[in-house]
């Protein structure tokens, strides 16, 4: 089987169903950025994480495939359109609560950094915020339908990635990098 199909050579790509969209369409931008986020999580995992953080990151990667499938399915009645739901959001919130209990309370803003895995989770957080902005943009396009659970999921996921970065630093015995405003 060949990897290249040549069907996108004219700047169009397929989504679920028979529809083809321009590669710079808001829907393609949104799920392409979710794919980028998934790759950043893969990078963090490849660097070696403690088993708990790795298991959480693996679950997030699986979820992000569901997010991507939902975004690639423009039909509100489609098989994949409603892949993400309130249970996914609740699972993120439970993980956030557990990780917050593990780290010291914040006393200042924190710069991305510390350990390499923490920095990678901070990078993932910023890509997640961009994905969220693109999904919100898609949701406001005429004729588009985006399940609200997708937007809520991405909003919570960015919070989780922030706390996960802090927890990874804590577990490694590496201090977070506090922001020190200029005088």
TrEMBL record:
It catalyses: 2 cob(II)yrinate a,c diamide + reduced [electron-transfer flavoprotein] + 2 ATP = 2 adenosylcob(III)yrinate a,c-diamide + 2 triphosphate + oxidized [electron-transfer flavoprotein] + 3 H(+); 2 cob(II)alamin + reduced [electron-transfer flavoprotein] + 2 ATP = 2 adenosylcob(III)alamin + 2 triphosphate + oxidized [electron-transfer flavoprotein] + 3 H(+). Residues 3-167 form the Cobalamin adenosyltransferase-like domain. It is an enzyme of class 2 (transferase). Its EC number is 2.5.1.17. It is found in: Cytoplasm. GO terms for biological process: cobalamin biosynthetic process. GO terms for molecular function: ATP binding; corrinoid adenosyltransferase activity. Its main location: cytoplasm. Keywords: ATP-binding, Cobalamin biosynthesis, Cytoplasm, Nucleotide-binding, Transferase. Signal peptide: none annotated. Pathway: Cofactor biosynthesis; adenosylcobalamin biosynthesis; adenosylcobalamin from cob(II)yrinate a,c-diamide: step 2/7. GO terms for cellular component: cytoplasm. PANTHER family: CORRINOID ADENOSYLTRANSFERASE, CORRINOID ADENOSYLTRANSFERASE MMAB. Belongs to the Cob(I)alamin adenosyltransferase family. This is Corrinoid adenosyltransferase. It comes from Paludisphaera borealis. The lineage of its organism: Bacteria, Pseudomonadati, Planctomycetota, Planctomycetia, Isosphaerales.
